Amino acid sequence: MRVVLRALAAAVREDRLLALATGSIVWLVVVQLPISDPDLGWHLAAGAEIARTGHVPTVDPFGYPIAGQPWIAYSWLAELVFWWVTTAVGAHALVALTALLAAACAVVVYRTCRDAGGASAPAFATSLLGALAALPYTTQRPVVASFVLAAVFARALLRHRRGLPVRLWTLAPLTALWANVHVFFVVGLGWLWGGALWDAGRRVVRGRGDGGRRLAPTALACSLATLCTPYGPSLLEHLLVLGQQPAAHAKVIEFTSPDFHLPGAWPALALVLATVAALAAGRGRRDPFGVLLVLGHLALGLLVQRNLPFLAIVAAPVIALAATRALGLPAAVAAPRAPLPLAFQAAAAALFVAAPLLRLPRDPSLEAHLKPGAFPTAAVEFVRAQPPLGRMFNSFGWGGYLIHELYPRYQVSMDGRTQTWGPLVAEYMTTHFVREGWHGYLDRLRPDFVLWERHAPLALALATDPGWAQVYADDTAVLFVRADHPLRARLLRAARRTSEASAG
Question: Residues 46-52: what's their mean pLDDT?
Fold first, then answer.
């Protein structure tokens, strides 16, 4: 047995084992998470539309208040892949794919920590901390692919600035891929142009550095690569639209500051504190541009919580290196590698091999992977079983799910594509939270039925409104129709039968 262990140790280096162990642990955590992302449904529906029509959408098909409005599906490639994986294999494959992307991101972050000079143990711990901090945003949506690509860009930039071998030319095709997957490609471009301008400025002021001569052509090539999408320059114009959503930013949780009172945000709080501590530590030489990059992302993460995964990516090398110095460990680039105990190496290798098999989801249905109570699954089945009910008014958080389940029979009144809905978001939110004048938007849309969270403010308001009648309710959702709806009596009978069948 010892001979086998020695052979395994000789075949796989310590760094590789710890990197694989990092990815395996992240896999095991993410693959167990239920689907709760409110936008997955419309991403899948967009993929289905692209497959059906053979081209990317240019006008919105899903919402009746914005019928015919321009829509740029900037994640079209990821949506097509998500739809194909879910349709051809099953929702369990989509869950596995998400976990694989999260694991790949963690592995790249670990390798970046080692490139920065961090010892293996701090690099391992820091990459796992970053993965935990990003966990609330590691959902079945295209942005997860953005995290992997951002980690690759961050590593390439760090290696370039440290004078380590790096193939900068590979970033251009990766940018072309990124631009077809998610709009966060602007993050990678910002890093490259920032690094190029910093080096150029240092060259002018101090006469040192390469003047950005290597990074500037790479940044230019990557910028041109963003045009390699079905939308061409229109995608870049759309970035301005995405940045001008004050009404949406104030209402959507992921656009707000992180709430560190919630236990789920505690890993992010630990990341923020570790980042501050690492920046405050005065030992060793630092790259000023790297410090500014971390400070910038720290500010962005505190302002908008969906930016926290990028803070985890850029801050992890700084934290790992500071921890290495604080613990008196030799830097990774200078120290001889001390082999890990054979038993640990064997356990790490076994974990990597077994992780894809452990907790692997096997049920292909989407419903089997949904977080209980997060979506109106029973209410949707009830609506499906009825004749057409007319226009629907739905809760914001359920819009994506309802698009996936009920389109094209029904269109939604709102969903998570806030940049497409524009100023209607503010009007909708007035009704959603039953603020003064909440009836205005409802009266203007003239919906025939309302599908809402059972205990939400609007549901309580409609329950006492003589113009509306409740015809169905379960633990999650409630269904109202107009008091003069021609199918009101039929729906009441159907709901009674459904309730009796559930009780029986």
Answer: 96
